[in-house]
Amino acid sequence: MGGTRSEEEERAEVLATARDVAVMARQVDLVISEDCLPGVIFNTELLRGYVGLVDGLVLPDDCEPAFGYVP
Amino acid sequence: MTLRAATLANNIRFGLRKARDVIETTLHTLETHDPAYGCVTRLLSERALRAADTIDARIADGEPVGPLAGVPFGVKDLFDVEGIVTTAGSTVLRENAPAVQDAAVVRRLVAAGAIPVATLNMDEFAYGFATENAHYGTTRNPRDPERLAGGSSGGSAAAVAAGMLPLTLGSDTNGSIRVPASLCGVWGLRPTQGRLPLQGVYPFAASFDTIGPFAGTVGDLKLGFEAMDGKAGGEAPDVGALRVARLDGWFGRDLAPGLVDGLDRIMAFFSSTKTVELPEVARARAAAFIITASEGGNLHLPRLRHRAMEYDPATRDRLMAGALLPASPIIQAHRLRNWFRTHMHEAFRDNDILIAPSTVGPAPRIDQPMITVGGKSVSARANLGLFTQPLTLAGFPILAAPLAPDASGAGGAEAGLPLGVQIIAAPGQEQALFAVGAALERAGVLGYPVRGATEG
Fold first, then answer.
1. Which region holds residue A70: left if phi is over 0, alpha if psi is between -120 and 50, else beta?
2. Are B201 and B401 within 8 A, CB to CB?
3. pTM
4. Which residues of B are catalytic?
5. Chain A: nearest CA to B121, how far in angstroms?
6. How distant is the Cα of B129 from the closest Cα of chain A, in angstroms?
7. What ipTM describes this predicted complex?
8. Chain A CB within 8 Å of residue B320 CB
């Protein structure tokens, strides 16, 4: 096996992401049609990888967000 | 074909050519040559000819005209141009009212005597690195029309590379000036974040959106930037005294042999072997991805709720996924941005200029839009920004510079295609970038021939 996912595992993961996407879409009042769903799932999984990278860096508590707004 | 902007302006100012003649020739060139490349989305013929007549009349009356008198330029289709709808490369906005005035930087260029002649193709809403647009077509690379021009400001880069225009405008959120400049073999500038006004520029991801010029020579690029900036640049530094280092680590992987040679030539010019390794570059790139996706997604969410099927499918699905991102990783990405900015400033404590590649190699083929990263073949559209995105996060000014062509003939099927580098300075130090670019251009290390640009 050695890290290789079976087709069944991959399908289960996609279905899980599809369920997550449906929940997140409801939260922002967005209806994602069947035509868009595969692409949105693909991009959501891609972004999850990036979220993992960003969350993986422990930052000091006094490191503030770099929002650009200057009053 | 088009001469250098500086030469054109001088010829017109000193009465050697009429602005009208220049504009008529440029419009004819765009009409006859552009179908092979797909750079132009709209010609501004009537306005351009009217402006040319005004310039000629002012010169005849002995009135002052600007440093770019009669110089034609094109704008990426997200800059407001008075009287027409700003499409941002989409059909979704076509019912919007026409712009009531030009974008601020377009007004500044016009005040300097330049004349807008065309709007130029881009990835829809600037979300991509390919300029493959479902509505307006794919922009082809003038160096090899079977290859991508890069994006999202592909029309702007390709119009200069083809010798059709001496000066164009683009926007750079994650690399949209630097990537197409590199693939097309022209000069481009991503100025310091916030230096140029974005009034009248259709947004993408406000945290990173930046605008800048493209040109065939670094001199023309400087001329265009100073007009956009509304003032002449300050004193240029002594290039020989600058401390130059090359970015290593993330920026040294997967490079085409020609790029390695080119980077070596640049470092040899400065007699420097110094390298700098920035920390956590993969996470910096991830933060740029997250901030871009979430801000782009939020911007388009109201339209995606009702008009999703009018979008380019590739853009739409990315925007939708971005709109679904929860708050926590977005805020973490902004905190990481702050952290990374501190490390970038630390890198400039001991250095004045950093050098990095712009892309891993030359333009990918349109029918095989893939690049190799870490031994894997990945989508060019999503990954051409491998080296530009992390630097986006810091917002420092970056000159996109074409390496001089490799005369050795090495490189197999991809020999002769342009390769580009990023030259990075501390915030506000654009003059240092122009000085370095000019020195390397004079030394024959940088600069890729553009039809007409080396004349005069």
1. beta
2. no
3. 0.95
4. 76, 152, 176
5. 24
6. 16
7. 0.86
8. yes
